[in-house]
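FYI - complex with zinc ion, inputs then prediction.
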Amino acid sequence: MKIVDATSCLTIVSYHYVRPIRDSQYASIKGLEKTDFEGQMKYIMRHYNVVSMEHVVASIRGEEQLPQMALLLTFDDGFSDHYLHVFPHLVQHGISAAFYPSVSPTVERKMLDVHKIHFILACESNKIALVDSLNEHIEQARESFDLEPIHVYEKDYKNPNRYDSGEVIYIKRMLQHALPDLLRKEITDNMFGKFVTNDQSAFADELYLNEEQLKIMIAEGMHVGGHGVHHEWLNHCDKSHQESIVRDCRGFLDSIGVSSQYMTFCYPYGAYNDDTKAIIARHGFDLAMTTEVGITDLCLHDNYMLPRLDTNDLPKSSQAETVSWTRNLM
Ligand SMILES: [Zn+2]
């Protein structure tokens, strides 16, 4: 890698699903097509210097300097996609990246609710059928829970945005947080069983990285950091719950052989508060990443609030014109 000049700017890019999507069983999953990932990597290799997490942490400590156009690749949620479709590509090009699995899916092989919802939505092209099924469940639960009339929920949540239809947003919001905890978990499980599969553990086994794969990735120079136990909204957890989550993350990272010299964290949903920052610092984490969109300036940003770009913020081919996120750094 050619070090052009010392700089404190770092572009961090976040990825989730990276897989062959178009001809797959889940063709409408919101993720990055494998060939688009490869195209984006060409764009990145052309314009940036990809740095490792170890290099970034050393820069924060003042031990090393970042090259100009430094870029760090991060992959959230511990999908086996990352072992199958990303890791070989990185090894082939001699570059490193940081991976953020949650503990429970990795160790216990259990589906996270957030991913059950993704696959419920990806399995059924008729979203109205999904809304009908959801509303039916809500009606059945009305006697046991204190619920609003359906039209109130629909008025509040069935609003399209630039990515999703009203139906999709409605299903997401209702199952993510609008319904009481116990009920939304129950309905998510029911709908996952009806529309995706009854065998959650086999599905989880295929969906998520396992400890062996992570150890192989670490041995090949990849970094692994903390991403919650059950992908919690940490800002909604009280202090002692946050403490136990972070302790479990740290224990997990130690157990798979992550160097205690380089402990990093990525907040699930980008959600955290002042307690979270203090707790992860106390447990030896050097930095943490949010979902705030932007370029990190290591001199300006709080190390526990580093912004990132999403894969969709950068082009997906080497021939593409440079976007402003790239141009502004040149
Ligand atoms: Zn996540």
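Residues 76-77, 227, 231, 268 surround zinc ion (CB under 6 Å). The mean pLDDT is 94.
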